[in-house]
Amino acid sequence: MSAAVKPVIGVTMGDAAGIGPEIVVRALVEPEVREACHAIVIGDAGIMRDAVALTGLPCEIRAVSSVAEAEFRDGTIDVLDLRNIARSDFEPGRISAACGRAFVEYIRRAARMALSGEIDAVASAPTNKEAMHAAGEIYPGQTEIFAEESRSTDPFTILTGGKMRVFLVSSHVSLSQAIALVTQPRIELVIRKAVASLKELWGIDDPLIGVAGLNPHAGDGGLFGREEIEHVIPVLERLRAEGIRIEGPGPADSVYDRADRGAYDGVIGMYHDQGVIPLKRYGYVTVISGTPIIRTTAGHGTAYDIAWKGIGRANVMQRAVVLAAELAASRAARAR
């Protein structure tokens, strides 16, 4: 990719029974997206035409069989048409095995296109795990499919919003499990992943990492828990001795306030809600690291309750596409 060429972003359509098709249409007509990249939807052209009709936007769906056929013209959305689902195959707002089979195919095709260099990055619309499992595709989520396709053994999810990039020590586990996971090996692993990801994806060679404590006031010297003293601080001291720039552990409210104002390149959060709540105001975008594929996704679900009602908001999907384009352009610039 030369400096004058926009990155090509593959946008997966997501679960056809959810808000994916609608928000993809709404996102891809936005001038910010058009300016940032050339986008091609990987999905079903018929469903995308129905989504355009739903939105009432002045836009034409143009079915193509390869990226080479895409024209990226204003007023059109190019769709790599897999022709793998129809409106008669599902009921909007309901879990559907047909939708699960279809969107897994979009994910796999997008991953392979990214690996072959046909596209520069992927931005994924939301999917539903139950629909995926109903289709016999037993994965925890989309990330694991991208990892399988790229033969990556250790993918990691980064949460982004505003000026914050958050790396979680634990995610989808109970609070008691989250506390048990605050161990020296796990904290060190996540900090090293954060440093590597910030270098690889954002090109930040010497990142500053802020670390939030687990307990109120980061334990307040052991008054409110000893996890910081026994597990967090020893790791930070070792990594500082290696030259990694780290601040903390600090009270979580203060750490996230500083991060929101741009004080840190990355933040280590100790458990799911600690990291997600500060990002919710932005509608966060997730990024995967640890694979050769640049991939982002809107940090929300399929919103079955409002699917195909014409009221979906595409602001987060829009940011996911733009971030994918920015990361792809940054990678290309560093490779020159």
From TrEMBL:
Keyword field: Metal-binding, NAD, Oxidoreductase, Plasmid
What is the main EC category here? oxidoreductase
UniProt KW Metal-binding keyword? yes
EC identifiers of the protein: 1.1.1.262
Protein's UniProt keywords contain Transmembrane helix = no
Q: Name one GO molecular function term.
A: 4-hydroxythreonine-4-phosphate dehydrogenase activity
Q: Which Pfam families match?
A: PdxA (PF04166)
| Protein name (record) | 4-hydroxythreonine-4-phosphate dehydrogenase
**The organism of origin for this protein:** Methylobacterium nodulans (strain LMG 21967 / CNCM I-2342 / ORS 2060)
- Organism placement in taxonomy: Bacteria, Pseudomonadati, Pseudomonadota, Alphaproteobacteria, Hyphomicrobiales
